[in-house]
Design brief:
2 domains; mainly alpha; DNA binding; elongated; about 90 residues
Amino acid sequence: MSRKHRTFDTDFKLEVAKMVKDQGISVSQVCRDLKLGDAAVRRGVQQYETERLGDGKLGKPSTAEQQRIREFEQQVRDLKMARTTL
């Protein structure tokens, strides 16, 4: 008998990650309570931390505001490079 592949929306994944990081519930407890796989929860928590710290090189920005911030940071880097060449 094969397992059915489940998919979860972004809001659900965010809530699960917040349970672990912000509420201090262990990954194993969240997995038991929600009947989720350990690897999926850990991956979601890692992505949440990456986006929260602004190191989002692994994926796309999660909000329009984060995208604008990244664009401004790139402009600052470009201007600094232009200034050093003068």
